Amino acid sequence: VRRLRGKSDPIDAEAAARAVLAGEAHDTPKADTEEVGMIRVLRVARRSALKARTQATNQMRGILVCAPAPLREELRTLSLAKLILRAAAFRPGPVTTPTAANKLALRSLAIRCQALSDEIAALDIELQRLTVVAAPALCQLKGVGPDVAGALLVAAGDNPDRLRSEAAFASLCGASPVPASSGKTIRHRLNRGGDRIANNALWWIVMSRLACD
């Protein structure tokens, strides 16, 4: 049961419980089984791998800042992809100098980045297959790729019919305007609630269509 009028978690929880006891709650819980459940867990693994790869690349850039000048000058103009390839091929030998230590650290991080990229690519293949099976019509829409489709499918669950209208789905994704009128001034503000990952997916669809139309 979703309650949106509270000011804190305890108040929201109490309001939801009272609604259930009074028979006023009619929401159907989201189901998370079969394809959508598989998409959800694979997205968790993919998000973790992306975060780890970003952390590793940032660490490589950080090491370069303080690396010995000859090594820094050798690598500083390389793109990230070329830096990873170059660093992964390092053979630092015995770690007896600052340069050797920096090369070993960069090599370790570069190999980690490559492994994570392979992991992400493998997960992307499975996610693309599952999203097409779960929602072929959604995947045909302009601006909707496997990542965007997966985010929307996870938000809706395996029983999207529980969302009674487009307005209900917009509210779930935090894309519905919130009344913020005062006196005779009628206005609305952005909705800061809802599923922010699904909200980001909608944003990507809009940006993609604006760029292509």
Automatic annotation (TrEMBL):
Keyword vocabulary terms for this entry: Coiled coil
Molecular function in Gene Ontology: DNA binding; transposase activity
Coiled coil: 106-133
Record domain Transposase IS116/IS110/IS902 C-terminal: where: 137-211
One Pfam match: Transposase_20
BP GO annotations: DNA transposition
Keyword Coiled coil: yes
InterPro entries assigned to the protein according to its UniProt record, in alphabetical order: Transpos_IS110 (IPR047650), Transposase_20 (IPR003346)
PANTHER family: TRANSPOSASE FOR INSERTION SEQUENCE ELEMENT IS1111A (PTHR33055), TRANSPOSASE FOR INSERTION SEQUENCE ELEMENT IS1547 (PTHR33055:SF16)
Name of the featured protein: Transposase IS116/IS110/IS902 family protein
Organism: mine drainage metagenome
